[in-house]
């Protein structure tokens, strides 16, 4: 496997934990230092935009325009937060985001669970076709225009269904869930069948209670995707009181129609706040994700791993 | 990520669970038997199947409007056949070739950076011995993956604005502030670096998982053979994660043509069209700004077919050369 370069004995040291034997050569120590520096840079570069946006959101507009805001707020003020939070459209759109996310996630979970359970039954006749129907859509899709024509002609425009239904099943999530169901021991289900449970009963009373972890992961996957989505709403929802908060933010940064509300409030209060307005809206839109992230991160990782191992 | 099921024609040799052992297999009757036996299971598949048929396969059929004259509000499958008229139209359209080139360039640059960098980061993380530090770096680097693309675009705009951090650095270095987002020559850099920022950390997960499955004995053996750290990485670690690399490479190639449509839509503007406009954004404008649905659908179909061909050939090549493939 390895070309023998020199017959010198390996410099073996006692192995701490499960790591491969550590060779404390000078070169390796240098590498460790370089590695630490690189990873520190990665952390700083990843976090800087967040810190910067928070600093901008709490700074006075004048300092931002002068290009003097980096890590800490200059001319600290929370006025812009008050401004955005007093915009009723912001609240309406935020509520829409919650409603859309919950509705779409519930539909997605039901659909994905049912189909994944069916696909996990290895002895089911026609299973290959059912899997193929789903997997093919990962690599070929109808495209933007036919989808738009379809959603419009189904009369789904300007309703939550235009966001929830066309994206009800994510095939990657489906395959992760299928892999999980396949890994469950079959004996319990057999016992349920012997006790006279129907397929629905087995799924509801035996399989789902065993699958809480994967269902939680799927809820998170779908909820984050719907929470973050903007394009479907942008395409299908014409009225501003229907928008989710992502479209609110999009219009603010694009300077498009619908953003004039909060601008008008700013003007009425004689506040110069164009740059801070954007920063504040970014912070307020990101906040929920940042708050739950530390607690849910491991579920995401677990879900991805599961999909990788058996997907 | 092999997803293909065993061919359904092969009836399982093991007796099916929770059912009395069946009668001898007779090909004609098996479907009826399967339906009678498993109708409850099949019934669970009805709604999902309807979803796939309506929202995935119907739009594929809807692509016939690329060959037909379509009028908004009219028949969703178009009014009458026009053959390849719209395809000839875009093939003769210089703007199309410009956006086609942009798509290839952006796709290639994304692949060039966003495919190898997660591998590098995963290898670096794998060498960190302080577990807490490792976990901290991981948590931080995954974070951008969870942000809405709108937020990412908004952050990019703030950082690159005339008063943003990047221009502060430029000024500190004695330069003139640059309106980055108005200049076509900067767009590719901006696009790719924001893509790296958002995806590289999350991209390490699968590699880190694969790294933990490598047998410690292999390292032991290679060390006895006199391999130093670098050689161990080259001869043990990289071959160990090769299946993951190949799988992800194929998947990346599959999305090559569909370069970040939403992000470009948020970040570009008429000034940067020369480098930023890609097939999907062009067809978006053709469809929605110019209401030329048939023309846009023709371009979309062309793009989807190329994407399918790319992923199929990547898969085939991978299977022939390294023996790993998606199916």
From TrEMBL, chain B:
Record-given protein name: Sugar ABC transporter permease
One Pfam family in the UniProt entry: BPD_transp_1
Biased composition (Pro residues): 1-24
GO biological process, one term: transmembrane transport
Localization per record: Cell membrane
GO cellular component terms given for this protein: plasma membrane
Source organism of the structure: Micromonospora zingiberis
Top-level taxon: Bacteria
PANTHER family: BLL4140 PROTEIN (PTHR43227:SF11)
Family: Belongs to the binding-protein-dependent transport system permease family.
Region (Disordered): 1-27
Main location class: membrane
UniProtKB keywords: Cell membrane, Membrane, Transmembrane, Transmembrane helix, Transport
Span of domain ABC transmembrane type-1: 100-314
